[in-house]
Amino acid sequence: MKKVALSAIVLLMVGCASTGTTSINGTTKGEYGNYSGKGGMTAYNIDGNAYKYHYDNGFTGVDAMGWDSNLQYAWSRTAGAKTCGMTVDSKKIISLLTKKYGYDELIHEMNGVDFHLLQQSKIKDFCNEQRVTKLKQIIPQMTNGQFAKKF
């Protein structure tokens, strides 16, 4: 009886295994690899595809890591300008973020901008034409204290 039950379990497991090109989370390969769009920012070693997905689509839910999603947006764009070699007055932006969101400037710099700078620097193709074009529009607005409310 034990052999029959064990065989049935093995057969059930094999029968349920995926044989297609989708990943465990149900997505197919594309612009962001197999990344599903949720949970990637919680990893110890954040995958570049997960980071690019959230940079492009928002650091929301669990992937905001407890921070305001709009604050994550501002941090990631400030870091993006640095990563892509643009002129950016990050000290001024951080000062304005402190007034808007609270927290110490060191928090904005280390937990925010520097965190995003580190993630972006690991991605070979991060500074593509589309991202740089958007940064050229966004950074002057942020330097003037205009922070987007995307989320």
Largest sheet: none
Number of strands: 0
Domain count: 1
Q: What characteristic shape results from the CA principal axes?
A: globular
Structural class: mainly alpha
> What is the residue-averaged pLDDT?
83
C-alpha Rg (nearest Å): 20 Å
Number of helices: 6
Order of helices and strands: HHHHHH
* Terminal-residue CA separation: 57 Å
Helix content: 55-70%
Beta-strand share of residues: under 5%
Low-confidence segments, ≥5 residues, pLDDT <50? 1-28
Describe the structure.
With 151 residues, this protein is mostly helical. It has one domain (38-143). Helix content is 56%, strand content 0%. The chain has six helices and no strands. The protein has helices at residues 2-16, 48-57, 69-83, 90-101, 105-121, 129-143. The model is unreliable at 1-28 (pLDDT under 50).
Keywords:
about 150 residues; mainly alpha; 6 helices; about 55% helix; disordered N terminus
Short summary of the structure?
The chain has 151 residues and is mainly α. It is built from six helices and no strands.
Q: What order do the helices and strands come in, and which of them pair?
A:
Elements lengths: L1 H15 L31 H10 L11 H15 L6 H12 L3 H17 L7 H15 L8
